[in-house]
Write a structure and sequence with these properties.
The chain is of the alpha/beta class and 889 residues long. The protein has 28 helices and 34 strands. The strands form eight sheets. The chain has a seven-stranded mixed β-sheet with strand order 5-4-16-15-14-6-7, with helices on both faces. A six-stranded mixed β-barrel has the order 21-25-22-24-23-26. Helix 4 runs parallel beside helix 13, helix 8 packs across helix 10 and helix 8 crosses helix 11. The N and C termini lie far apart (66 Å). It binds iron/sulfur cluster.
């Protein structure tokens, strides 16, 4: 089905039909309205009727229309580097998987899938691996995101159940954000919280995070805890809950088990390991205990830890002990990183889950699913989780691997070993939109998959809301939907009837029917009420919260009146003790490395880096380091630094800031070999996992940091993509072409020749200005008198007005080599507001000249922050850092 055939959820003008769909980035799951222009363009707006966002979008969501072009898209299957037909590619995949299974058994093959897949894609992949191949070796990149939450939920609730709703954050009197930079990672949920706090300033926000982030700026209290000490903090809170007599004794007696042991373990804890001042701890405890309506939101800072599952349960313990769960404005609340991480959890995309929250190790559950699928055989044990899966590939135990819609050669820890394991695996298939990812480049077969704006199906967001994703763009080239590719391979492997799907709605109906069996087993995930949706009803499906049982009415929230999914129907409190991160700083590796997302990029940048305005916000990979640590290591502002661990090394730009603790550094997770020479941060992260969840530690590796001391630094702009040959480079698109940061340890003998190679331009005029004593230069290249490229170098980090240099492309004259505009052309500086492309210098000037004192006033004066609002925390930070003289002063 192409976009023109889609039933429209809502009709707009005759020229521009409007289709309701869902943003493909974070787990907030915002509704979007899509208007294709019929010529390859797409207008995207927030859906005011969607309960996740009520019309709001963040910077990434607002820029979705800039990411749907076909530049770089894979349009046909590739086998061994050559274009191939679908028939030959899929026959090969089916034959190689069958032959491998026949020779080495079902556990010699594996699927590594993604929270970007739609539920229907996930369902077919899971059915093929677990029901027909007969192995549980299917795991998802959601393992890196929230597996610890799944484990924590299952231990406490019996199933992976999110008890509450987003409205709880707005209704609470205290919201505690643990290990969550909500402002950058779940921006619309942050906007909802910020709006609620503005309307009701008494709503108290506490942020627990070793790093001071944009989110911390909203908080009444920021606790910069020692990395990995959350269990000690929440154990202390639990002990105080008992001491101050705020246990809900009735709720505990009727609905909770494990109380005494959990309290005894908590009482024996030592809260000093958090590194917090006693007054800070007391203020936190007072806030949490003093307001009944408290929501504890947690995210990757909790999950990506070797004690992640215990952290989740330490938080849940406090809510169970006080009965503050499942009622409006209270409860533990996990927010997921990916658009369909929840759908993957529900459908059994994790190696240790069966579909519909059924348990793989439960014989009755297995038998029921096997019968429902008419499956030949089912695995009796959990399969390999992500880190173990790639270790097994490196050891030759996984001999055929299919990676769908994700980039493990970048995103997994010890990424060089993962890359080597993929390269060494006998047979590797990758389904993706692009053949240029670090992982796709290692594949024997690359299958062109459709992208977000082309696909049809469903996703589930962090609050259990199932939304339709609707394809509106034509399918490019020979690309196919993931469910269709997987089902076709299933048919070619001999299971024609089981995989005879014609549409996502057919798959959804089967999945919803299966969930009815889960409901009969007393599991939480029951959407059997949707199992009779015909195509028309599926197309028109509005955002729907699960459960949706066939019989009876489900409530909004879980567990206010007990009803847990454990054998005794009681919620379990766990006895927990603090465990420090496995790796400890040493003289050789003295810094703790924290990693995470930035505001305007998504995962490995394959889509967001297509948007020039998103890419201007933070234009290169960086390392945040405390000023005293920078001083101690001899690092100056904007130096290139070498970050090294026993597993690898990267080169990053130093960003000296007291937002990180002394002894800690932070680096973003996004950069790949496509966009930087040496910035895959996964290469330095140790592959250490939580023993319960298998989720790898992403926040507490140990590294060394030192100035790299390049011989020269450079900045380059070009109308065309460049081919940098330097130890350090980072390249992104600009509005006018491309821009790159450069540095190297050897100076080229001939700067013009270097520039021509960099820009791939052998013809045309060159203007070279050289400093012969320092061996440095500025080079401008022209064609027909028009600037096509420019290179600026220095022995220090280059001082160039970067936006001005980008904008000079296409102009005449070599004035650009001055590196800064004339007095009549102010330099806007690095982008802060991506929606209106407003730079920091413009904002600072407006604040100073117009005596602006609030974010709202900045918006009224220069529009910054008035569209998606994602930059409003940064505007507040800029304001806070400036003393604005008032008229009376
Ligand atoms: Fe998309 Fe932003 Fe909404 Fe997340 S918060 S779903 S990235 S628009």
């Amino acid at each position: 089905m192409d976009g023109s055939e889609l039933p429209l959820a809502q009709k707009g003008s005759a020229q521009a039909p409007v289709v309701c769909s869902t943003c493909p980035y974070c787990g907030v799951g915002c509704g979007v309205k899509l208007s294709p222009d019929g010529a390859g363009g797409l207008q995207v707006r927030g859906d005011q009727t969607h309960p996740a966002n009520y019309g709001r979008l963040c910077s990434k969501g607002s820029a979705l229309g800039e990411t749907v072009d076909l530049d770089g898209r894979l349009l046909h299957p590739v086998v061994d580097g050559a274009a191939a037909s679908w028939d030959s590619a899929l026959d090969l995949v089916a034959e190689r998987f069958k032959a491998t299974i026949a020779e080495h058994g079902p556990d010699s093959v594996a699927f590594y899938v993604s929270g970007q897949l739609l539920t229907e894609d996930y369902y077919v992949a899971n059915k093929l691996m677990k029901g027909f191949i007969g192995s549980a070796n299917i795991d998802t990149n959601s393992r890196l995101c929230m597996a610890s939450t799944v484990a924590g939920h299952k231990r406490a609730f019996g199933t992976d159940t999110v008890p509450g709703r987003y409205t709880d954050l707005e209704e609470a009197d205290t919201v505690v954000l643990v290990g969550s930079n909500l402002a950058w990672c779940h921006p619309v949920l942050y906007q909802r919280l910020a709006a609620a706090k503005k309307a009701r300033p008494g709503l108290r926000v506490v942020n627990i995070d070793p790093r001071r982030t944009a989110t911390s700026d909203l908080a009444d209290l920021h606790l910069s805890v020692e990395p990995g000490s959350d269990v000690a903090l929440f154990n202390h809170l639990l002990a105080q809950i008992v001491r101050r007599d705020v246990v809900d004794a009735d709720y505990v007696a009727r609905h909770v088990s494990g109380f005494d042991a959990a309290i005894a373990a908590a009482a024996g804890g030592d809260v000093s390991v958090t590194g917090l001042h006693p007054d800070e701890i007391a203020e936190f405890v007072d806030s949490w205990i003093g307001t009944e309506k408290v929501v504890t939101v947690f995210s990757q800072g909790v999950n990506q830890s070797t004690s992640g599952s215990d952290k989740v349960n330490a938080i849940i313990n406090c809510h169970l002990a006080t009965g503050r769960v499942g009622r409006p404005g209270m409860g533990p609340f996990s927010v997921t990183g990916q658009p369909n991480a929840m759908g993957g959890r529900e459908v059994g995309g994790l190696a240790n889950m069966l579909a519909c929250h059924l348990d793989i190790e439960n014989a009755d559950h297995r038998a029921a699913v096997q019968e429902f699928w008419s499956a030949p055989e089912m695995p009796t044990n959990a399969g390999l989780k992500a880190v173990d899966m790639f270790r097994a590939a490196g050891e030759g135990k996984i001999k055929a691997l299919w990676v769908m819609c994700t980039n493990p050669a970048v995103s997994l820890p010890e990424a060089n070993s993962v890359r080597d394991a993929i390269a060494a695996c006998d047979f590797v298939v990758v389904s993706d939109m692009y053949a240029t990812t670090d992982t796709a480049r290692l594949a024997d077969v690359i299958l062109p998959a459709t992208g977000w704006a082309e696909k049809d199906g469903t996703v589930t967001n962090s609050e259990r809301c199932i939304s339709r994703q609707r394809g509106v763009m034509p399918i490019p080239g020979a690309a196919r939907h993931d469910w269709n590719i997987i089902a076709d391979v299933g048919r070619r492997m001999g299971w024609a009837q089981a995989f005879d799907y014609q549409s996502p709605s057919e798959i959804f109906r089967e999945y919803a029917a299966l969930s009815g069996i889960a409901g009969q087993f007393g599991r939480d995930f029951d959407i059997s009420g949707l199992s009779d949706l015909d195509q028309q009803a599926y197309d028109a499906l509005q955002p729907t919260y699960w459960p949706v049982p066939k019989q009876g009415q489900a409530g909004d929230r879980f567990f206010a009146e007990g009803g847990f999914f454990t054998p005794d129907r009681k919620g379990r409190m766990l006895a927990l003790t603090h465990r420090a991160p496995v790796a400890s700083p040493t003289a050789e590796f003295p810094f703790r490395l924290n990693t995470g997302r930035i505001r305007d990029q998504w995962h490995t940048m394959t889509r967001t880096a297509k948007s020039a305005r998103l890419s201007q916000h933070l234009a290169e990979p960086f390392l945040e380091i405390h000023p005293l640590d920078a001083q101690g290591t001899g690092i100056e502002p904007a130096d290139i630094v070498r970050v090294e661990s026993p597993y690898g090394a990267v080169l990053l730009r130093a960003l000296i800031t007291d937002r990180v603790r002394r002894g800690s550094v932070f680096a973003p997770m996004h950069w790949t070999s496509e966009f930087a020479s040496s910035a895959r941060i996964g290469t330095v992260i140790r592959a250490e996992t939580d023993p319960v969840s298998g989720q790898p530690e992403g926040k507490a590796s140990v590294v060394s940091v030192a100035p790299a001391k390049p011989a020269w630094y450079g900045f380059a702009v070009s109308a065309d993509r460049m081919a940098p040959d330097a130890a350090y480079w980072a390249m992104i698109p600009s509005n006018e072409g491309w821009r790159a940061e450069l540095a190297d340890f050897d100076r080229p003998a001939d700067w013009e020749a270097f520039a021509r190679a960099l820009f791939g331009q052998t013809d045309g005029e060159a203007v070279v200005v050289e400093d012969a004593t320092r061996g440095l230069a500025r080079v401008a290249l022209f064609r027909d008198g028009v600037l096509t490229a420019a290179l600026f170098t220095d022995k220090e980090p280059v001082q160039v007005a970067r936006k001005y240099a980008c904008s000079a492309l296409g102009a005449a004259g070599a004035g650009v080599l001055a590196g800064r505009p004339g007095a009549d052309q102010p330099d806007p500086g690095a982008t802060v507001c991506a929606c209106f492309d407003i730079g920091i210098n413009t904002i600072i000037a407006a604040i100073a000249e117009r005596h602006l004192t609030t974010v709202e006033q900045i918006g009224e004066a220069i529009q910054a922050g008035t569209n998606c609002g994602s930059c409003r925390p940064e505007l507040a930070t800029i304001l806070a850092g400036m003393h604005v003289p008032q008229a009376a002063e």
